[in-house]
């Protein structure tokens, strides 16, 4: 037995000889004060664990799209996967090439699940599909294969909703749908500068607007075989952030935004979950909003990143943020605490 292994073994045996109360006290004192405050009012379950660095090497790398020999290196490429590891939407993100394409990535994963195969079979036409319509470079994409739709944001300040269903399988499709020839069914306008990020909330379904409440004639209730008609009289909400320092929340079935939240600099990441919206900006600040009434309420501002926020994720108790500063930070949602609970460096 090596000396290091002997030290680890003796240390673990010493821990086992300690009383449960001593272990709890030591564990509680070992975490940060921010975590102690965050979890002081929550039931905490303690587990005896041994931590070892069993693997220290590069992570597995999956090549989802391989550049051809005649293709130039594209540093501004925008991508988004469907979450089910079946399809990827991508665009070069340049003013010269504004075409949105799709790649089947299910075959890249050895542990492909049955539902991924089903999604692949239903959407096989996506590999041939090309979406064109934006007047400026595409800066943000959101692909949802469950509802077979795509949201795209652009330098032209607009957001487009695309119907990805195979039209050969949809009889009696209304030709009155806006721009139906290239699958764009709705255009959202509100931003005054580039749209940089989009988040579609699939966790909460909302009742569709009644025809009498629709402001524009183009927003009359769509036919039953249209994109929003397939949702059984419900709709979804999505959030967007832009270089105009604004964050908007929208409904899929209306061109008019529901709420507007403002930052001092570009909004680079958004997240929407039910009545909560989180928005991160270029300065590294993150703001948490409660969406209710005519005006959203700012619950708190979390400041810890030293560069722009690039991604946000949330569950019932925590918010996780990633930034160009190379750190992933964890925040509490259950109280007024604005300090970071912990951070993970990323090379």
UniProtKB/TrEMBL annotation:
Stretches forming WD repeats: 131-172, 302-333
Family annotation (Pfam families): WD40
InterPro entries attached to this UniProt entry: SCF_subunit_WD-repeat (IPR051075), WD40/YVTN_repeat-like_dom_sf (IPR015943), WD40_PAC1 (IPR020472), WD40_repeat_CS (IPR019775), WD40_repeat_dom_sf (IPR036322), WD40_rpt (IPR001680)
The entry's keywords: Repeat, WD repeat
Domain of life: Eukaryota
Protein name: Uncharacterized protein
Lineage, opening ranks: Eukaryota, Metazoa, Spiralia, Lophotrochozoa, Platyhelminthes
